[in-house]
Amino acid sequence: MFKTLTIARRELMGLFYSPVAYVVLVVYLLFVGLLFALLVFAPGAVADPGPMFEWNHLALMFVVPFITMALFSEEYRSGRIETLRTSPISDFAIVLGKFLGALAFYCVIIGSSLVYVLILSAFGRPDFMPVLTSYFGLLLLGMLMVSVGLFFSACTQHQVLAAISSCAVLVTFGILLQAIGGLLGSIISQPPAWLGTAQRVMTYMSFEPQMQHFSMGLVDTSHVAYFVTGTFFFLMLTYLVLESRKWR
Amino acid sequence: MSSNADIVVRNLTKVYGRFVAVDNISFEVPRGSIVGFLGPNGAGKTTTIRMLTCFLPPTSGAASVAGFDVFSQSMDVRSRVGYLPENAPTYTEMRVQEYLAYRGRLRGIDRSTLKTRVESVAEKCWLGDRLRWPIGTLSKGYRQRLGIADALLNNPQVLILDEPTVGLDPTQIRETRKMLADLAGQHTVLLSTHILSEVELTCQRVIIIGRGKILAQGTPEELKQESARRNSSGAKLVVEVRGPTQQVKMALGAMPAVENVEVLSDGPICTLSLTGKLDGALRELIASTVVGRGWALREMRTTGTSLEEFFVQITDPGTALNQAA
Q1: Residue A209 falls inside a structural domain
Q2: Chain A positions with Cβ closer than 8 Å to B
Q3: ipTM of the complex
Q4: Domain that holds residue A10
């Protein structure tokens, strides 16, 4: 565990040294600021930061791939993977360390949006419990997003390819699934039973309905299970990819 | 498996698809010795080293390092090996001290001794004045030293260095050699290189590998003798004399030990190349004959027996010698 934290610390530090991370931070803050200004911060409105958190994933699905793209790709490209994997540390500890490092940076990024909550509380009295559950939801979402990014980074030595692939997957879960589900429902007047099931599955897999619940202050175990199992699934895939590279 | 060998390799093979990178090689590295692992580019040196450091699993065969199997006891091997990969990759944004401390923690060095360990290896590798420098600003030579310092951090029983002097300037190469000589005895060192002079100066034993196979192994002296023995027809004595070419040629050709004389250059100073039984007695006879005739003997040297020529002969796919090996 100590070695895992050593790797996590180094990854976090490495992210703070890279200019990409700061660009990403600014982009995220601008986007959340926009949501805040358009949906939340209005004279006479209810002091509810919910909508700001509900749509956060739209920015995060483009932001997280930039945090995770270099995690393994850069190690492969520079040859450092050799120093890392010949050190007395297990592959899973390496995967977990990199995951935790990137997740810590993700937390810094979403933590920066607290500034808008503070602004809101200066002008009104928002309910802090939904804010807390929103951040809990964002943390779960981040775990899944980072593990997806980590997986694609472990697949290739090209950072850009890793970023684009993970973006594609995250956009699928963030927008596409729900959009397709909605589209199918609207064009077929009397959908057969299987289509209804497919639609429900697609909606369940999408980020938006899940984040909506968290932003309303609801912590549903099915949503927690979704993010936790998804994260575990992609971490295991990453581990397997790393293992399989040995045998090529 | 002999008990005093730190690296034991038995019938090790690595196949990538259809390409056989390492083909059934076996060798041993005795404890406390420096062994040079020599071969042209693409001979299979790095692949072998990667198998010994547990980075790649072998296709077949076995290897043990520091008494542990590289495949089934990988963690034990890794914690006892200091490894410098080719080009010594590091995190360029980190500072030297920071990087060494990070590597030390990964290798499980105790927190209380980490600082002194980092300082001591940095001192050993002449990095003491660069501890606070970002690695990105260091020259290639310093980065290479940092890689060696990293390999030495946990005071490993076995050191495996892949091309440690690549990219260094002559002074640094000499310093590195000196450092390696200091390390022998305390550590078992396997040194991969394609620079022959390095091997001749630093290594007690040499293993020559080419196209995945071991072509020769022994001390540098043994290999030179082997070269002379196996290539007796190829060994030549080159004599440079101030005197009339034809008379010199006749005089030398008349000696019973000389089989053939070839004139390499004509003129007031002539150079001749002799083949035959080229021993010390012949050289003395040549010297006394030349001086006795009133000519001047300017130079006498044997060619075809240096480690370099042996290496070229043995690794060149076309030579008959290589086919015999």
Answers
A1: yes
A2: 2-3, 6-7, 10, 13-14, 17-18, 78-80, 82-90, 246-248
A3: 0.86
A4: 2-243
Smallest CA–CA separation between A68 and chain B, in Å?
17
Residue A181 counted as domain residue: yes
Q: How far is A3 from A90, CA to CA, in rounded Å?
A: 9
Residue of B46, B91, B98, B137 for testing the chain A interface, max A β-carbons within 10 Å: B91
β-sheet bridge partners, residue B175: none
Question: Chain B residues with CB inside 8 Å of A88's CB?
Answer: 75, 78-79, 106-108
Residues of A in contact with B91 (CB under 8 A): 10, 14, 80
- Using the CB atoms, write b or e for B142-163: b if 16+ within 10 Å: bbbbbbbbbbbbbebbbbbbbb
Using an 8 Å CB-CB cutoff, list chain B residues near A82.
50, 55, 83, 85, 89
Inter-chain CB pairs, A–B, below 8 Å: 62
pLDDT of residue B322: 44
Q: Tell whether B128 is within 8 A of chain A (Cβ).
A: no
| Multiple choice CATH, B236-303, 3.40.50.300, 3.30.70.1340, 1.20.58.760, 3.40.50.360 | 3.30.70.1340
Report the C-alpha gap between A81 and B210 in whole angstroms. 26
pLDDT in tens, B39-77: 888 888 889 999 999 999 999 999 999 999 988 898 999
Q: What one-character-per-residue DSSP string does A110-144 give? A: HHHTHHHHHHHHHHS---HHHHHHHHHHHHHHHHH
Beta strands in chain A, from DSSP E residues, in sequence order: none
Topology agreement, domain B5-227 and domain B236-303: no
Residues of B in contact with A83 (CB under 8 A): 83, 85, 89-90, 103, 150
User: Would the CB atoms of A17 and B93 count as touching at under 8 Å?
Assistant: yes
Domain count, chain A: 1
- Classify residue A98: in a domain, yes or no: yes
Q: What pTM did the predictor assign?
A: 0.84
The domain B5-227 having CATH identifier 3.40.50.300: the answer here is yes
Q: From residue B234, how far is each of B229, B246, B303, B305 by CA, in Å?
A: 10, 24, 8, 9
Q: What is residue B127's predicted lDDT score, i.e. its pLDDT? A: 85
User: In chain B, what percentage of residues exceed pLDDT 70?
Assistant: 93
Strand partners, B56: none
The separation between the first and the last C-alpha atoms of chain A, rounded to the nearest angstrom, is 29
Which pLDDT tens digit goes with each residue over B137-192?
Answer: 988 888 888 999 999 998 899 999 988 887 778 887 888 888 888 887 788 999 88
Q: Is there a domain that residue A248 lies in?
A: no
pLDDT in tens, B126-151: 888 888 999 999 888 888 889 999 99
Residues in Cβ contact with B73 at an 8 Å cutoff, skipping those fewer than 6 apart: none
**CA-based nearest residue in chain B for residue A83:** B85
pLDDT tens digits for range B90-113: 898 999 999 999 999 999 888 899
Low-confidence ranges of chain A (pLDDT < 50): none
CB-closest option in A6, A79, A247 to B57: A247
Domains of chain B, residue spans: 5-227, 236-303
**pLDDT (0 to 100) of residue A99:** 96
The pLDDT of residue A18 is 87
